[in-house]
Specification:
This protein has 11 helices and 12 strands. It is of the alpha/beta class. The mean pLDDT is 93.
């Protein structure tokens, strides 16, 4: 009989045998929702302790985050409904909300690594990630707009652009646009992005719910495994620098397989809004301990193979010393 309990007798022994590296502050990418105005900090009803910030208060919060050692942020723009149109024009203007936010962050915090979401859904009047022909999402005519959006973010100073529209060929189109302009901005591809029910709170936060139908024709079917790895491989062939699986916890198997098949490419996993709110709300109802459940869930993501984790809990994780 093997005696495994000897490996768990004390905290010191358990720490000695732990074979998953601790998650450091620099392993997190902290997501932010940016809105117009000044002095604005709006709590998101479906995501406790997560806010929409105007640029001035965004800088104040980043100051706090940077002092904790978190040096990477991901920006999502949230614009008024009146500024949206069928082409998502506000997404790819040189003075767009996100371009102004990038410039402000880089002017104040040049050491912060800025990632920007590249997608049209938060900027189109119909809420879909691509342009429409009647009710069909048209792939190829969307690509130049995604490339232009990424280009404008790069000009503004983004370190990474992160295309999330799940249009075929988006990485190639963006890579060509950046390379033609001799820009060194890198690409984090939302490579394996599943059509997930876990995105619900995000769509409330970003005002990006589709006005009709769903996104199952371009985001991945959750019943597939091999497609996720194939999508990642295609993005690598098209020129991405980093890769991502989204959501994280329901797709640990994809993170595991891809991180081992493509070890040269940093694997990012996104603990999405539904994962965050589910754990926060469960802890509030006394179903489990908040600190322990986040420590366990985030460690599971790391254990599966994620080098970096996008999480709305990152700030508190570091503050609590988990």
């Amino acid at each position: 009989m093997k005696r495994f309990r000897e490996l768990r007798k004390t905290q010191e022994i358990r720490d000695n045998y732990a074979d998953v590296a601790p998650i450091l502050p620099s392993d997190f990418i902290y997501p932010y929702f940016v809105i117009e105005g000044e002095g604005v900090k709006e709590e998101i009803g479906t995501m406790k302790d997560v806010y929409r910030f105007s640029i001035d208060l965004l800088l104040k919060d980043i100051d706090e985050v940077s002092l904790l050692g978190i040096d990477k942020v991901l920006l999502f723009g949230v614009i008024p409904e009146a500024d949206k149109d069928e082409q998502g024009t506000a997404a790819y203007q040189p003075d767009s909300l996100i371009c102004r936010a990038i410039r402000a962050i880089k002017a104040r915090f040049p050491q912060i690594v800025v990632f920007t979401d590249v997608c049209l859904c938060g900027y189109t009047s119909h809420g879909h990630c691509g342009l429409l022909d009647c009710h069909n999402i048209e792939n190829d005519i969307t690509l130049p707009l995604l490339a232009e959006m990424a280009f404008q973010h790069a000009l503004a100073g983004a370190d990474f652009v992160a295309p999330s529209a799940m249009m075929d060929g988006q990485i190639e189109a963006i890579r060509r646009r950046l390379d033609t302009a001799n820009l060194s901005t890198r690409i984090l591809a939302y490579s394996a992005k599943y059509a997930s029910a876990y995105y619900g709170p995000f769509r409330d936060a970003a005002g990006s719910a589709p006005s009709f139908g769903d996104r199952k024709t371009y985001q991945m079917d959750y019943r597939t495994m091999n497609q996720g790895v194939e999508e990642i491989e295609a993005d690598i062939e098209e020129g991405t620098d980093w890769i991502m699986v989204k959501p994280a916890l329901p797709y640990l198997d994809i993170i595991y397989r891809a991180s081992r098949k493509f070890p040269a490419y940093p694997m990012v996993a996104y603990q999405v809004s539904g994962e965050y709110s589910m754990l926060i709300n469960g802890a509030q109802q006394g179903l489990f301990d908040e600190k322990r459940v986040f420590a366990e869930s985030l460690t599971a993501i790391r254990r599966a193979g994620a080098a970096l984790i996008i999480s709305y809990y990152a700030k508190r994780y570091v503050q609590y010393g988990l």
